[in-house]
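Cross-posting from the modeling subforum.

Setting up a comparison between two proteins and wanted a second pair of eyes on the formatting. Protein 1 (sequence, then structure tokens):
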Amino acid sequence: MEVFDKWLSAELKPFKRDFDQIKVTKQRCLGCSSKLITWILDFDPQFTYPDWELGKCNDCGKLNLIQIENARSFQPKTFTLIKSFKRSEFSKEAVLNELLKLEKK
């Protein structure tokens, strides 16, 4: 665990924040069940994140709809952001249809 703490400290140094201020969210990849980890850098319980995010798992490459809630800023750790969709313009169903189209390419 000490090695992980040192690594985490080095990763977070650019953000100059206490570890207590960073929230971590996790969800399972639909392809390989690995954890898709997001660091929430600016958490606000009154804020609704305005976009749907599609992320590509770094382990298997499967596209996933990433759940971002109450975050003004975040950093993906175990996936790569592929595309954002404005919630005001796209329903969840429309985003899932886009995900299916992107997977077929």
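Protein 2 (same layout):
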Amino acid sequence: MPWRELLRSSGWMLALVFATYVVAWALLLPAVQSCFIADSECGGNVYRSLYPLQAFLQTGRLLEYADSETPYTTHPIGYSIVLAATLWISQSQPLLPIVVLQLLLLFSCGIAVAVILSPLGRGPALTGLALTAFNPNAWFVAVQPRTDLVFSAFLAVTLLAAFSYLRRPRLATAVIGGTSLGLATMVRPVSEHLIYALPIAFVLLGMLADNRRRPLLALRDGIIAGAVGLALVLPWFLYMAANGQGWSLTGWDIRSQWIRDIHATLEFTKRRDAPMTAILFSGYDSAPRKDMKNEYDRAHLAQVAAVTTGWDSLSRNQQQKLIAEERYRQVKQYGLSTHVAAALQNWKWTLLSGGEGELFKALGKEDEIDGLPQNEPLFYWAVKFLFIGFSLSLKVLALIGIVGCIVYRRYGVLLLSLTPIVYIMAAHAYYGGPRYRLPIEPCFVILAVFGLEYLRRPWAYVLKHRRLVSAA
């Protein structure tokens, strides 16, 4: 097993990296203590997420925070369960346990990457671990009670299972992948459609595996893995359907907000009417979009209410469904060029930005960002250089890794690394940010390490050839 070989050959190195990680965070945690307190700017209103579970324990029903008589139909409750399991540990700093758990999950993502890269040798494996666990974008998302790290950890297990299947196709490995993907979907439903693609994915993996799997056996593995993943989310599907939300993991309320965000992004892009080069090389300003969202909330409500008979007698769910349908109709009216420009702007922000905003938020400096270049220039530009430099370097190495995988015909690595990247970026075509790429950072790290190997191997060949010539 790759993980056993990694432990046998590099156990003390792994322990050293983990000790460094723990010491670094022991020094940093006091600076981000505001993130451990509920209802703080960094900690957020976690009790809003916990309320449905509290209501379930008291009444036997999942209920909305804002309306204790309305069934809860916003998001799947996977993260709420994880959060509830940790809150009781500390009364003075109730969010500290979930932050510690998320930091451990971040390191576990690095371990998964190290195991995936272990066939390349100890050096590449430890490099992958370091690039994942010490990613500055991930560090300061991890100290905030959000779904990102739990979701990323489940996807990392799925990725590890897929790479294990590529080396040695087995049904048990496929089931592990399907299970972790189902659990990830219960934390954040964006991965739902990956479950449906598992049968095709495992057929392709069987064809590209080191020990090729017969297509029918690979298809069987994929179907069983998909069935396991679907079985984990099926109860939530049935619950949502029973509460008038249709066959969906999210309610009409959140779907209406999502379409509103798309509408605001498209309208902002259209009004801007800038050439493509200006869009690609300009900064990202979220303030105008926020103003548009507030404007559209009022405008769409008034517009739909005016043409709907008996609007006041409708439930909130029915109202949000009508608003969502009207918003979707308006979104379809924008031209292709507007959609492309909006997607490019969001992809640029999501892929290339460093995520330094999360650091400023964790330090309580989010409201001071505009003044930081003048008030604390050294700190501001050092953070910018570190975060953006890390992000851009990783992407450049990943591009080189793609070339290396093509040259060395590592098509399985390409398939498993690029598919999550393309899928997550497509899901965040109209709204995003650096924290939304957290689930696919392991894919970038894997490609980046292959890029380093591709750069190293030609030089190793040249040096070896020179030694042979000198010896002759």
